[in-house]
Known about the structure:
- The structure holds 2 protein chains of 2 kinds.
- Chain A is mainly α.
- Chain A is 86% helix and 0% strand.
- Chain A is built from 9 helices and no strands.
- Chain A has helices spanning 2-30, 37-48, 52-74, 83-121, 124-130, 135-173, 178-187, 191-217, 222-253.
- The longest helix of chain A is centred in the middle third of the chain and has 39 residues, at 83-121.
- Chain A is elongated, with a radius of gyration of 21 Å.
- The model of chain A has no long low-confidence stretch (mean pLDDT 92).
- Chain B has a domain at 1-37 and 47-84 and 200-243: P-loop containing nucleotide triphosphate hydrolases (Rossmann fold).
- In chain B, 36% of the residues lie in helices and 27% in strands.
- Chain B contains 9 helices and 10 strands.
- Chain B has a 6-stranded mixed β-sheet, with helices on both faces. Chain B has a 4-stranded antiparallel β-sheet with strand order 2-1-4-5.
- In chain B, a hairpin with a 2-residue loop joins β1 and β2 (23-34).
- Chain A binds chain B through residues 34, 42, 115, 118-119, 122-124, 126-133, and chain B through 54, 57-59, 80, 83-84, 86-88, 90-92, 94-98, 107-108, 111, 155, 165.
Amino acid sequence: MKPVRWLGRLALRLTRGIGAVALFTGRGLFGLHPFHGRALLAQFIQIGWLSLPVVGLTALFTGAALALQIHSGGARFQAGDVVPAIVAIGMVRELGPVLGGLMVAARVASSIAAEIGTMKVTEQIDALVTLSTDPMRWLVTPRLWAGFLTVPLLVGVGDIIGIMGGWIVGTQSLGFTSAAYLSNSWAYLEQWDVLSGLIKGAAFGLIVAVSGCWFGMRSDRGAAGVGRATKSAVVAAAVGILAANFLLTGAFFQ
Amino acid sequence: MSGLAKNGPLIETRGLTKSFGPKQVLAGVDLAVGQGESLCVIGQSGTGKSILLKCILGLVEPDAGEVLWQGQRLTPARRRDFLSGFGMLFQGAALFDSLTVWQNVGFRLRQRMSDARARAIAVEKLARVGLGPETADLMPAELSGGMAKRAALARAIADDPQVIFFDEPTTGLDPIRARRINELIRGIVTETGATAITITHDMQSVRAIGDRVALLQDGRIAWDGPVARMAAADPLKAFLGAE
């Protein structure tokens, strides 16, 4: 009976946990009144604008490496010409959103969890309540919306930079002309390829922001508590992104 | 005549209890504070003074009992009105790291007036606690412990509150700065006529700030009376002896 009981408890805990996170996300997303525009703008800059260098560099090197890989692998069956199309499709459908999401998770989920966790430990969240301000609306809502809205933009920019990474390698060392590379890139790319990647980006941005806020708000007392919250936020965001990517890919392309 | 005797209680707790696991921290706290009164709640570390304060503010949900404000039960719906009429000085100042000093002080004001107006009031309140206008644009991390406490005090009084809570106002300060903070608090409470509730274990603070003192012991109020009579109160002797 013990394994059954253990499994039952695990299922109950898991269900409770998912329910709690869903309620937290709902409260965060729909807590727009009063609207804290300045806090939202600050998070757009923090999550979106300041993540651009890391997402851009990741996309650039990924696109360049992908071009080399496809060319080398494709040469085995005389398919080296497909490099531009596969780099473009691979970047916009999969690598752009996933790697962009993971880089944002590393940069943003940790920083959100550490910031909110420290605020909790130092009674700043209690101070917000005493100043008639709902911490959910002031801290969580702007971060959730900023994650949801800016990560797709980052993914879009990352897609372009990634394709450019492939173009640099293709034209500099694989023998493609610039015009041929670019026309091959666009020729096989469909609107839905791009759109599906942007939808993934929005989902991943939300996962990152929810993870950071959830673990930050539940941070234990002390520096160790903030450290644990930060680590948990990054791990949960990364695993959440990979799991969501699998589910969304199945839903979009099967 | 005290504010409590004159006008009845402004804030009252009835039978507040709170446990954390097997440990009962509050075991039925009955306490009342009147309009314009300065009450100090004392007790040894870990006796639940801060939990009592957080229960009154709604930051911690009590297991049983109730908090009354102006004679009416404080429900979640009334809490926003209640919170809009008071200020709080936290033990560790609790200034928002991401905002400048004036933005901290004018936090509540900025929600209903222009930044220029809020800043002017914030600078005025900073001056009231002895901080010059040059501190307005500093970040909290650039302030010393004493300055942070003063800035937090300025934030607590920024909106001319009816009630001010002070949680261990002199903790972490040297005796000279602690005395200065006590004097500031006394001056502000006298000048504004605000009701003050101070949580402390510093008897210098009690003598400087309080009109009345309540001793929290074993989760209950073990003694409650005027500061002038505390030296003769038996339950307080052990506490005062440890000074």
